[in-house]
Amino acid sequence: MTLSIELTPEEEWRIRVEANELGLAVDEFVRQRLLHDPEFGDPDDLTPDEIAEINAGIRRGLEAAAQGRETPFAEWAEAKRKKYGLSRPDHAA
User: Fold this and answer.
1) CA-CA distance, 13 to 93, in Å (whole number)?
2) Do residues 38 and 60 both lie within one domain?
Protein backbone atom coordinates (compact mmCIF):
# COMPACT_ATOMS: atom_id res chain seq x y z
CA MET A 1 0.00 0.00 0.00
CA THR A 2 1.32 3.40 -0.91
CA LEU A 3 0.23 6.61 0.82
CA SER A 4 0.90 10.13 -0.37
CA ILE A 5 0.63 13.18 1.85
CA GLU A 6 1.50 16.83 1.40
CA LEU A 7 4.11 18.06 3.87
CA THR A 8 5.48 21.50 4.43
CA PRO A 9 9.24 21.79 4.01
CA GLU A 10 9.51 22.10 7.79
CA GLU A 11 7.51 18.91 8.38
CA GLU A 12 9.60 16.99 5.86
CA TRP A 13 12.81 18.31 7.45
CA ARG A 14 11.61 17.25 10.92
CA ILE A 15 10.78 13.73 9.72
CA ARG A 16 14.15 13.41 8.00
CA VAL A 17 16.02 14.63 11.08
CA GLU A 18 14.16 12.28 13.45
CA ALA A 19 14.63 9.32 11.09
CA ASN A 20 18.33 10.11 10.75
CA GLU A 21 18.75 10.38 14.54
CA LEU A 22 17.29 6.89 14.88
CA GLY A 23 19.31 5.53 11.98
CA LEU A 24 16.21 4.68 9.98
CA ALA A 25 15.18 5.30 6.40
CA VAL A 26 12.38 7.85 6.17
CA ASP A 27 9.81 5.29 5.02
CA GLU A 28 10.68 2.92 7.88
CA PHE A 29 10.54 5.77 10.40
CA VAL A 30 7.10 6.85 9.19
CA ARG A 31 5.87 3.24 9.13
CA GLN A 32 6.96 2.72 12.72
CA ARG A 33 5.39 5.96 13.86
CA LEU A 34 2.09 5.18 12.19
CA LEU A 35 1.91 1.59 13.37
CA HIS A 36 3.48 1.76 16.81
CA ASP A 37 3.16 5.31 18.11
CA PRO A 38 0.58 5.54 20.93
CA GLU A 39 -1.02 8.53 19.23
CA PHE A 40 -1.94 6.30 16.31
CA GLY A 41 -2.32 2.92 17.96
CA ASP A 42 -3.94 1.58 21.09
CA PRO A 43 -2.68 3.81 23.90
CA ASP A 44 -3.45 1.20 26.54
CA ASP A 45 -2.06 -1.72 24.54
CA LEU A 46 -5.19 -3.70 25.37
CA THR A 47 -5.60 -7.34 24.49
CA PRO A 48 -8.56 -8.44 22.35
CA ASP A 49 -10.13 -10.00 25.47
CA GLU A 50 -9.82 -6.72 27.38
CA ILE A 51 -11.38 -4.80 24.51
CA ALA A 52 -14.23 -7.33 24.33
CA GLU A 53 -14.76 -6.98 28.10
CA ILE A 54 -14.90 -3.18 27.83
CA ASN A 55 -17.37 -3.38 24.94
CA ALA A 56 -19.55 -5.84 26.86
CA GLY A 57 -19.59 -3.49 29.86
CA ILE A 58 -20.61 -0.57 27.69
CA ARG A 59 -23.41 -2.66 26.15
CA ARG A 60 -24.62 -3.72 29.62
CA GLY A 61 -24.66 -0.11 30.75
CA LEU A 62 -26.59 1.03 27.69
CA GLU A 63 -29.12 -1.80 28.12
CA ALA A 64 -29.53 -1.00 31.83
CA ALA A 65 -30.12 2.67 31.03
CA ALA A 66 -32.67 1.79 28.33
CA GLN A 67 -34.51 -0.42 30.83
CA GLY A 68 -34.46 2.29 33.50
CA ARG A 69 -32.14 0.37 35.82
CA GLU A 70 -29.53 3.14 35.69
CA THR A 71 -29.97 6.78 36.58
CA PRO A 72 -28.33 9.43 34.43
CA PHE A 73 -25.65 11.33 36.36
CA ALA A 74 -27.51 14.66 36.13
CA GLU A 75 -30.58 13.14 37.81
CA TRP A 76 -28.47 11.44 40.47
CA ALA A 77 -26.55 14.65 41.21
CA GLU A 78 -29.76 16.69 41.44
CA ALA A 79 -31.24 14.17 43.91
CA LYS A 80 -28.09 14.39 46.06
CA ARG A 81 -28.18 18.21 45.95
CA LYS A 82 -31.78 18.18 47.19
CA LYS A 83 -31.12 15.48 49.80
CA TYR A 84 -28.14 17.31 51.31
CA GLY A 85 -29.27 20.88 50.65
CA LEU A 86 -26.45 21.63 48.24
CA SER A 87 -26.54 24.38 45.63
CA ARG A 88 -25.26 24.20 42.11
CA PRO A 89 -21.81 25.71 41.55
CA ASP A 90 -22.03 29.18 39.99
CA HIS A 91 -20.39 27.98 36.76
CA ALA A 92 -23.01 25.20 36.36
CA ALA A 93 -26.10 27.28 37.10
Assistant:
1) 50
2) no
16 and 37 fall within a common domain: yes
Q: Which domain, by its residues, includes 31?
A: 8-45
The model's pTM is 0.40
- C-alpha 12/C-alpha 6 separation (Å) is 9
Euclidean distance between CA atoms 47 and 57, whole angstroms = 15
All residues at 6 or more sequence positions from 18 whose CB lies less than 8 Å from its CB, including other chains: 29
The segments of the chain whose pLDDT lies below 50 read: none
One-letter-per-residue 3-state SS of 34-61: HHHCCCCCCCCCCCHHHHHHHHHHHHHH
Q: Are 26 and 15 in contact (CB under 8 A)?
A: yes
